[in-house]
Amino acid sequence: MSKAIIQHETGGPEVFKWEDVTISDPGAGEVRLRQTAVGLNFIDTHLRDGSYPLASLPATIGFEGAGVVEAVGDGVSEVSVGDRVGYCFALGAYTQERNIPAGSLIPLPDGVGDKEAAAGLLKGMTAQYLLRQAYRVKAGDTVLIHAAAGGVGTLVCQWAKHLGATVIGTVSSEEKAKSAAAHGCDHPINYETEDFAERVQDITGGKGVQAVYESIGVKTFLQSLSVLAPHGTLALFGHASGPVPDEYFAKIPMDRYYIRTTLGAYTATREDRLTLAKDFFDVVAQGAVKIEIGQTFPLKDVGRAHAALEARKTTGQTVLIP
Prior knowledge:
Blueprint: E1 2-7, E2 16-21, E3 30-39, H1 42-49, E4 65-72, E5 84-87, E6 97-101, E7 106-107, H2 114-134, E8 142-145, H3 151-162, E9 166-171, H4 174-182, E10 187-190, H5 196-203, E11 209-214, H6 221-226, E12 228-236, H7 246-249, E13 257-260, H8 263-266, H9 270-285, E14 293-298, H10 302-310, E15 317-321
Parallel strand pairs: 8-9, 8-11, 9-10, 11-12, 12-13, 14-15
Antiparallel strand pairs: 1-2, 3-4, 3-6, 3-15, 4-5, 5-7
Helix pairs in contact: 2-3, 2-9
């Protein structure tokens, strides 16, 4: 018998229940994974509250984890019993054990711990497609990343700085401004006390930025557009403050570029996943990007973790311990 977080309805963090579950033998192409760490991501809150509808309830959510392969089903060649592996974008992570398709697993290099993989894999692969695919950052660029002290933000700041960019980031407090600066953000802007669009124009001498990585949504979208340099790119990859209304897209200037991104579109195949993960693990191995865990919660207390995340009381990555 194992334990898992079960969600029987949508709503606030109180909908989560810590319940007994039975894990069957892995089927063909599957492995049974004993999880040692589970990642927390903002998309989890959208699934919990119904913003992103689940196919059915009850359900176990969560997309990211790491652990050890305990058993393999027929036809599995990608991994073996005893392997340390991680994964992301495989729904059902809020559990002590799970069966999961072997093809979704990513072998972990010796230099990356289980907690670091669970905390950083999804966010690190997100940083990869933002910086190397949605807009390919080059030396001399200036970029703006919202939520610069958050899980994705701290990784984007470090990696963009490593690529030779000037990094501007928005945050919601002076404490988070210090955290962003410590992770490579050249110009942290506290949007609670400053108009970030005005500050960006001041910093860039009115030239604007080559890329905006937009995860806040409706609250910041139009201002983000306003700070783009000609032929600059706005990559929308989240909407923490609410979805962007359709009419806002008509306001995009003809000489600016917009892309709505999602990790799933960049990890459609196992080869894609391995490529993104390798790029991320490579910059980690170089020491250019550090996976820093800001806080941990027992998995059974995931409701508290969600509440802290939504209240913007977390910094860096958050790990849930099964």
